[in-house]
Write a structure and sequence with these properties.
about 220 residues, alpha+beta, nine-stranded antiparallel sheet, about 20% helix, about 30% strand
Length: about 220
């Protein structure tokens, strides 16, 4: 529990943004119709001891964040239920042999949040996953998300100047309803058979902190 709210409530993978838009229901669009997923979250608690030992060094810790940031240890902190497949596939590192996620949130009344997933792929499969996951994520561009009477449009654009290891991509997803917007910055990076997803949820479009954090995540793989 961070600042009186669970991280899950502010994560952009659940995108419970200030405008009140959720991902539990998705509307159609001319370009894309995001779908929902009810897959269980990937967490370290489901891993065999050997898998957990191999993945733990690939995950960030609170020492990688400014003072005041804390890890959300809630069981459902990285849950993807109700999240569009285009986002859930990244969070779960779809196609990986094993993966684990960790969630952090900033202090304050309106905390931002970060989720990282590290994973390992079968030999020669990690690089191939970049094209698949990039295509999946960007398929939501131009789509809409609806919760009750509130409907938000989705826009996705690349983030320049961020290292992605041997292969990968960095994008910013924007949810807009009226004059309100929320943002999800994503990084997917691959080194050898290892891969990392980094998601940064915020109510501002600035990518400065995300660009500073991304190299730390990539360095661990």
């Amino acid at each position: 529990m961070i600042g009186g709210r669970t991280t899950a409530s502010v994560m952009a993978i659940g995108i419970g943004v200030a405008m009140g838009v959720g991902l539990a229901a998705c509307g159609g669009s001319a370009k894309a119709t995001p779908t929902t997923t009810t897959r269980a979250p990937t967490t370290t608690t489901t891993l065999a001891p050997a898998q957990s030992a191999a993945l733990k060094p690939l995950l960030m810790t609170t020492s990688d964040f400014p003072t005041g940031w804390a890890q959300d240890t809630a069981k459902n902190a990285a849950a993807t239920k109700g999240t569009p497949t285009c986002v859930a596939n990244l969070v779960l590192l779809k196609g990986s042999a094993s993966s684990a996620s960790v969630v952090f949130a900033s202090p304050g009344q309106n905390p931002t949040a970060v989720i990282q997933t590290a994973g390992m792929f079968a030999p020669n499969q990690a690089a191939a996953s970049v094209k698949t996951l990039k295509s999946s994520f960007e398929s939501c561009n131009g789509g809409t998300l609806q919760s009750g009477s509130v409907k938000a449009s989705i826009g996705i654009k690349p983030i320049r100047g961020i290292s992605t290891g041997d292969a990968g991509f960095a994008d910013q997803m924007t949810l807009t309803e009226g004059n309100q917007s929320s943002y999800l910055d994503v990084l997917y990076a691959v080194k050898g058979s290892n891969a990392v997803f980094l998601g940064w949820s915020s109510t501002t479009a600035a990518t400065t902190f995300f660009a500073q954090l991304a190299p730390k995540a990539v360095a661990k793989i």
